[in-house]
């Protein structure tokens, strides 16, 4: 009876909520494939003449998507893409459609290299793409069982036979147009990275680079493209069989790629010369120098490694810091090497500040890595003296970080009706009510919920960036965790320029303002209880793989309304800041909190795999 009641509730819920109308292929406003080639050609001529690259931060998801569509439409020769994840949802299919049009209508060479682990692509679609001609190529990095869509048994067998080979992945993100315009950063390709989900969206960061010389980044791309781990779709067993049988749909109709007609505004902007010029060309910053850093593809054959190229270069830069290091990473699990580097930096220059911006448990998409962070925070705060901030899922400034109003008013997609999209955290009651324009009238949304679905759109930090002394900036795919350090291949760009570095630092500083993040700090001293607790948790944490004592000496702090954000150690700190616990916004018995506590207590043996 209980199951019948649950299914009845889901069915009633689905039937009572209106959803976005499916796209039937007869849109009155067809997509334009006109790019703005002349805008980019003139810019490239200026960059080549000055022999100085130009760079632009891309913090807003929809703007970054618009730029990608424009660049595809503006390409004259080639489009090369590396990515860890490419989901064939609305955004994924939009980009795929634009690539097909560029290739089939204008003869643009397209090369796509996609890691295989989390990409569940239909063999019929990939078979179709494999027949578009020699100038449209797709390869998968390290595919399981040499299949596009292996069965569960095949995946399990592959994992059991060679765990090492299955575990190492290509984590690079690179979007390269005509070998001279590049995008790199943290964004994969799906709805979550471009502000299109009524639910979790990633607050991510790309950098646009206009390059006078492309030799280095082109060499990087082809080192992966020609790697033995990169397998053409035509060599995958299930795709090869489909191609031989020739039994799949050959349709390239638009309605096959568009389930919903939701990108009219983005499409129009992507072909609007003035918009592209004002939004992406004018703000470009001429920078002194760029340095590409990337792991070679043989890292996956050597992993786990102790001296990967990206880790080594970033550690060298941080060790040379004179005043401050500002880091933003969605996951923070410091290896012994990185902890040692921070400790040596503090010993060498005690006045150097190290600030880290990361996710709170309520905001993170990975409670396992958060649990490891939670277990080791005492070391980070007390021994390494790091300043740590944890991002809120609904920061006060969220409307400046994404197209928030759209997600509060948009009709849901059918799959967004599924119960698993419901969040478990509590919305902050101190957030001001948010007025939204429905097109008919203005209404106030209590609890920040979508007006149709009553689900909360929220953000999870996914940007990976670093600023040193406001002189050196890094943007890339590298997370501050063991997986990026010793297993996955990573890619990013170091930009040596004071203006650009200041812009990046300001972007991160906006995220760690008290209205947007919790400050992590040691709790208020309580003479006897604090000493007893310190003894017990130090004993507990001294065991190598278990840490059963549940009470931590640190906590999350939120600035009280109207109070000054005085720093830790100030006489008014505990008067101005409110202790909101280690997992603010999460009820005790939520899956996230209980799972994180259990993993912290018993699962640290798996730290190298995080």
Notes on the protein architecture:
It is built from 22 helices and 23 strands. The strands form four sheets. It has a ten-stranded mixed β-sheet, sandwiched between helices. It starts with a helix and ends in an 8-residue tail after the last helix. The relative contact order is 0.13.
Topology:
Layout: H1 2-16, H2 37-50, E1 54-58, H3 61-74, E2 78-83, H4 90-106, E3 109-115, H5 123-129, E4 136-141, H6 152-161, H7 163-167, E5 174-177, E6 181-185, E7 200-203, E8 206-210, H8 215-225, E9 230-232, H9 237-245, H10 264-270, H11 273-281, E10 285-286, E11 289-294, H12 299-302, H13 309-319, E12 324-328, H14 336-348, E13 353-359, H15 367-383, E14 387-391, H16 398-401, H17 404-409, E15 434-437, E16 442-445, E17 458-461, E18 465-468, E19 472-476, H18 482-487, E20 491-496, H19 498-511, E21 517-522, H20 527-541, E22 554-559, H21 573-576, E23 577-581, H22 591-602
Helix pairs in contact: 3-4, 3-10, 5-9, 15-22
What's the short story on this structure?
By secondary structure, this protein is of the alpha+beta class. It is built from 22 helices and 23 strands. Helix 3 (61-74) crosses helix 10.
**What is the CATH superfamily of the largest domain?**
Endonuclease Chain A
The backbone outline, from C-alpha atoms, is: globular
The chain-level structural class is alpha+beta
Q: Give the beta-strand count.
A: 23
CATH architecture of the largest domain: 2-Layer Sandwich
Computed Rg: 25 Å
| Number of continuous helical runs | 22
Distance between the termini: 41 Å
Sheet with the most strands: spatial strand order: 11-20-19-18-12-13-14-21-22-23
Give the CATH class of the largest domain. Answer: Alpha Beta
Give the DSSP E fraction (strand runs of 2 or more residues).
15-25%
Mean pLDDT: 90
What's the number of domains?
Answer: 3
| CATH fold topology of the largest domain | Endonuclease, Chain A
Q: Strand count, sense and closure of the main sheet? A: 10 strands, mixed
Helix content: 25-40%
Low-confidence parts, pLDDT < 50 over ≥5 residues? 1-12
